[in-house]
UniProtKB/TrEMBL annotation:
Residue ranges of the region described as Disordered: 1-27
Membrane topology reported for the UniProt record: Multi-pass membrane protein
Domain Major facilitator superfamily (MFS) profile: residue ranges: 36-466
Superkingdom of source: Bacteria
MF-aspect GO terms: transmembrane transporter activity
Polar residues: compositionally biased ranges: 15-25
Transmembrane segment boundaries: 38-62, 74-94, 106-129, 135-152, 164-186, 192-211, 223-243, 249-266, 287-312, 318-337, 349-372, 378-395, 420-440, 446-463
Compartment list: Membrane
One GO term describing the cellular component: plasma membrane
Keywords carried by this UniProt record: Membrane, Transmembrane, Transmembrane helix
Protein name: MFS transporter
Length: 466
């Protein structure tokens, strides 16, 4: 042990070696907790910014590389496929080698891949580095929830989850305007280079102040990890091919291979004590309901986010410059309502509050669809978006609290991986539904909004049941 270091109890009897005598048996003590959380939140800001600014850069990238707009979508798809493939295997790696090690490795990979993206000279090179960047993001997302659970005392965890929601929503709201500002005086590589100072600061803080919990297990299911990565990747790629109008036979082939491998993974997981696909967590009734509500809620939100720009521009004839402003009330309201919901997340009626929030979001989406052909004032659209965001804020913090806290501490990595997987799965389902609806130019956006409203109502019923 180095001079000035000492072994302290890092929570539930496990020992860690640290030069900062500021951890209690239940989370980290201030100011170490504050510095560790600053590092974790910096990584969240970096990952959310990278996702929210990329869409604005696609037309410029298409022009610079002299390629079609459709080809640039692979920059989004490659990133998302890497995340889908890596979430659960990397959360299992966190349980095997330690969450801290996986988290810091993911940060380092993300930063290095960002440099590769910035210096790319062609679409293939850029898409390749975006895939690597997605793997780094998957490592961050896979164990972020576990890191948060270890950093916060159990009595303050729900509040910390609320702060997380504020940071994610606030960053999502600030991303497009910030990207527009950067692209007004610099080229698209700067969007990747801004990850360097944020990522390095996060890595420094987490390395110096983060809690190092020993491995939870001495085994890692390599075959299960391979089945998980290939099955999830094939299913996502098949859905993406369908959305982009690829030959149906090829898309069906990806889906068939993915589903067969997923069934093999499910069968393998049923025989294991700590399965790669954490079906053991579904034995907790509250967790199973929380997962179902999360998938349906994020699918509904994606239906809204993909359909609304088409509805505003093509049907309501709203100027393109105003569309971004009309989307802002959604994340802003989530950021405002999440702290209140977080303070109430441990109450017995928190499930009712989550369900009521989703019901409010469902009503808002339905109202947007109903008013589509009546040309409502822009202020009315903004108010409806704010109501929808408030509903999501009331839902997310209590539901995330259940997903992260209900699982046993030794399965915190699997719980964090499932939380992220449910979000990505929901977004994928919602994107597929919206894309199918948008094939009908006139009624597509309205159908997508009604589908989102229905999914939100289903999520509300599930959330109420937990």
């Amino acid at each position: 042990m180095t001079v000035g270091s000492r072994a302290v109890n890092g929570g539930n009897g496990f020992a860690v070696t640290t030069s900062h005598p500021s951890s209690s048996g239940d989370g980290l003590l201030p100011p170490r907790r504050h510095w560790a959380l600053a590092g974790l939140w910096a990584a969240i800001i970096m990952a959310v910014l990278d996702g929210s600014v990329m869409n604005l850069a696609l037309p410029i990238i298409a022009r610079d590389f002299t390629i079609s707009s459709a080809s640039t979508t692979w920059l989004i798809t490659s990133y998302q496929i890497a995340i889908v493939m890596g979430l659960l295997p990397l959360s299992a790696l966190g349980e095997r080698f330690g969450y801290h090690q996986v988290y810091c490795s993911g940060l380092a990979i993300f930063v290095v891949a960002s440099i590769g993206c910035a210096v790319s000279t062609g679409i293939a090179m850029l898409a390749g580095f975006r895939f690597v960047q997605g793997l780094g993001a998957a490592a961050i997302m896979a164990v972020n929830g576990a890191q948060m659970r270890l950093a916060w005392p159990s009595g303050l965890l729900s509040r910390g989850i609320g702060y997380n929601a504020v940071i994610v929503a606030g960053t999502a709201a600030a991303g497009p305007p910030l990207a527009g500002l950067l692209l007004s005086f610099a080229d698209w590589p700067l969007l990747f280079l801004v990850n360097l100072p944020i990522g390095l600061a996060s890595l420094l803080l987490v390395t110096h102040f983060g809690l190092r919990r020993p491995a939870e297990t001495s085994t890692f299911d390599g075959i299960g990890a391979l089945l998980n990565a290939v099955s999830f990747g094939a299913i996502f790629l098949g859905c993406s091919e369908l959305v982009h109008g690829a030959p149906q036979l090829r898309a069906a082939g990806f889906l068939l291979v993915g589903l067969l491998l997923f069934l093999a993974l499910l069968r393998r997981s049923a025989r294991q004590e700590r399965p790669m696909l954490p079906i053991d967590l579904f034995r907790f009734r509250r967790l199973a309901f929380a997962y179902g509500a999360s998938v349906c809620a994020f699918a509904a939100q994606m239906c809204l986010l993909l359909a609304l720009p088409f509805l505003l521009v093509d049907t309501m004839r709203v100027p393109v410059a105003a569309v971004g402003l009309l989307l802002l009330p959604l994340p802003a309201a989530i950021a405002l309502s999440s702290p209140l919901a977080a303070r109430l997340a441990d109450r017995r009626w928190a499930g009712l509050m989550s369900g009521a929030g989703l019901a409010l979001a469902a009503i808002a989406m339905g109202a947007l669809a109903f008013l589509a052909d009546q040309a409502p004032p822009l202020s009315q659209i903004a108010a409806i978006m704010a109501l929808c965001g408030a509903g999501y804020g009331l839902f997310q913090s209590p539901n995330n609290n259940v997903m992260l806290r209900t699982a046993p501490l030794e399965r915190a990595g699997a719980a964090a991986g499932m939380q992220a997987t449910c979000r990505v799965a929901g977004q994928t389902v919602g994107a597929l539904i919206a894309a199918l609806a948008l094939h009908l130019p006139q009624s597509g956006p309205v159908l997508s909004l009604y589908a989102g409203s229905g999914l939100a109502l289903i999520a509300a019923l599930i959330a109420r049941g937990r």
